[in-house]
Here is the input.
Amino acid sequence: MSWLEAVPAALVAVLWCVAPGVVWLRVLGWHGIACWGGAPVVSVALVAVTAVVSGRLGVPWGPLPVVAATVLGAVVLFGIRAAMRQRPRSSGGPAAPSRYVAFLRGGSDGPWSRPALLAGLVVTVALGWLTVVLAFGRVDAISPTYDAVHHYSAVAHILTTGDGSSLTLGELTSPGRPTGYPAAWHDLVALVVLTSGAPIPAASNLMAFAAAAVVWPLGCALLTRQVAGPRAGVLLVAPVLATAFTAMPWLVMTWGVLWPNLLGLALVPAALAAVVAFVMPADDSALSRSSALLLGAVAAPGLSLAHPNAVISLLVLGLSPVAVAAIVSAVRAARAGMRLRTVAGPVGAVALAAGVLWLLAWSPFLASVRAFDWPASMGAHDAVLGVLWNGTNGRPPLYVVSVLVLVGAVFAVRHARTAWLVPAHLTSAFLYVLAIAREGDVVTALTGAWYNDSYRLAAMVPITGVPLAAIGVTGTVSGLVGVWARRASRPSASPNMVTVTAAAVTLTAAVLVVASDGFRVGVHAFVVAGTYQREATWMLQPGQRDFLEAAGRAVPAGEVVAANPWTGNALVYPLTGRETMFPHMSGNWTPEQKLIQERLRDAAVDPSVCRAVRATDLKYAIDGPVSYWPWDRRSQSFPGLTDLGRAPGFEPVLSGGGSTLYRITACGAGPARSTG
Here is the structure.
């Protein structure tokens, strides 16, 4: 599949991320950036919850349940809106318009908002597409990372079983023990596979593109519009600036690989906009308080089923607008002589902060996550400079966007509506510096909710960095235009001056994009390519992918293949649909699986092994050299699947890429199946 041939599949990925939400929100009467920025949150929540319900009902996962849920929900919402449109007649007169007509709507985005948002998104998608083309190489390139094996296998599991429920996906690595695992990412990738025909690796890459170049920029645009007001310039530059930071979305796309985190964090800006709209309402808000409450309620399951880390990030960042709103409320109440309200706001904010702190540091819900520890890898001085210049985790600094953030911070602190962005930004920066530069119980308590992983914490910084940079651009341009207007004796609020300001922002944005090479597209592509371009030498040996695809044709449908996942041969599952007994490097395997893992090669002389083989209906095995992390002790934990060619009872079927597919004959199976 070429990149040109992948365009329809990419459009399908974007469609699943946006269309269901747009349908629901348009039925409710939402418009502008409130609709388009909130749509991905609604879509992901709808898809993930529908997968859970479908799993409970025994309905196979696919496009049909999502379309049915979208249509059914739209009908219900239309009925609710129709019922709210009028209130009962009074005094025999005509029906009076309900005071709840605008219950779920926000303010207008202002003149030129639609073309500005469209232009910004066009540039954003172009920059995002160029980045992934340069980074991935092939559209179906395999991410040779530890977590990618699990994510690929999880999608294959959904396609094989028809069950995309987050309540049961954990069974992939805990056979016979259905456990929860956030499945929103995998549900969406499975939908792309089923509706476009793209293979799992290509569908995963295209979904990553959709999250990075569409979902994330739309959310950032909504958040920036909410805090900066109805200005066309904001809707133009915010989506473009969303691609300008390495830590999010690009580094998350390659480190780990953290695809579910990528999706979850891409939804956080829109959810944060709902928090801001609720605690700091304004007449020109993109979201009314009611619509903010609705979007927040939908965001809760959406973020949770994408990745719980996203919920924690939202809670931590949401403390800043709550605190600023409490302070503003207390000051106003004090001036009005309302003592109770003067105290209530700050007390409530402190109680909320204490609750979040307890959740991070002491709650039993995150105890297993806090057990992870990534050792400090740089000094505090270098870590602080990394945040300041947006070169976190040792990546190249981004001076242009960093200056814009600093300028935006200066503008932001001057107004209560935007001032919260600065402490929120500093909070993310502080947590990142702790994780990468310090060790100890305090660090574990504060950063353990993110696995003490500096990469995950660095990805939080652009959530506030994007609106700060956008405010930096629009604030600077508006200030310069205002100076010119005063000198030219022109009223700065006139329609002509609004047009001049919009044109000046557009020209400035164009200059910034061109002068910075698309806000360092080459740097972002280089960062992502750091793993993808190693496919042939890190996870798979040369020719091994072709071998696995041939093995999939040689093994009959429905059969299970055993292989040491550290050899890369576990990828036979996502590449061909032939289920592998060990779909990830680690898992809570059954006693039979453990016996096969340790002693399969002794099947001809150990009856207990054959009993395990028959119990699992295992007929095939793949042997090959450990190609991934050979220095890791766990890669040597599959001795039963090593040197099968020297053990009796294993008949070779085909070889290639350093690996060999065997048919297990030691336990009474028949002759090898012909592949000719």
User: Anything to note?
Assistant: The mean pLDDT is 91.
